[in-house]
Amino acid sequence: MQKLTPISNLNQTTQTVAVLLLLATFPLVANAQQSNAPQKDWKLVWSDEFNGTKLDYSKWEIEINAFGGGNNELQIYTDRKENVRVADGNLIIEARRDNAEIAGTKREYSSGRIRSKNRGDWTYGRFEFRAKLPGGQGIWPAIWMMPTEDTYGTWAASGEIDIMEFKGQEPNQVWGTLHHGKQWPDNKHTGTQYKLKSGDFCEDYHLFALEWEAGKMRWYVDGQMYQEQSKWESVGGKFPAPFDHPFHIILNMAVGGGFVGNPNNTTPKSSLFLVDYVRVYQ
After folding, report:
1. How much is the pTM?
2. What's the topology of domain 42-281?
């Protein structure tokens, strides 16, 4: 092993140079400690770049319902091109205040919701989404995952993974959350928020990602890891249940509901949720 000469044994000029060199290394050490993304060889296994002119039904299903998500939401989800379409290299989900009516059910707002259920289902992986979000009171775009089967019981005993949720009235902040524990209404949720230091999520595209491994999940925005979770539970099974069985992706935009509150007279009559791509790695 090489022996180092103590600084106290050097002359004054050499001491000064040595101290400056040591100080200069501190930012490098600090930056290394703050490295965001783990070094891992992820391999692309599934993707949609939305470069065509129509939705790829081998990968996605459009959901049609007026259920309101159990959150007293105001929209009806349709398969109309006004609400779900692919154009200009994007998946476009549009919420509209248009008094839509489908099969005798009418809602003040229409919107879109798609899912990869039975077309893309995974246990573990890295999930990336490049998207531009819409603003406005009561506008609620989301990127999330639900279990393909209720392996451990009904919601939320089998889990829910919220990769990105956004309140249109809080344009510089997104949420990442897990839902788990017992069945509703005795379920629990754990998570936190990420705030941009400047600007907001409506101005440009941002990259949202989740890394899900056995017993651990990490959330990223633009390559910055802002949250890691490794503690959760399910009444139906032992840890790492419920996050150890297949989940599928959901992309949607709700309007109103308990999470965001209802729209007001400042809310746009039309809001666009743009998704540039979805990529899944394992």
Report:
1. 0.86
2. Jelly Rolls (2.60.120)
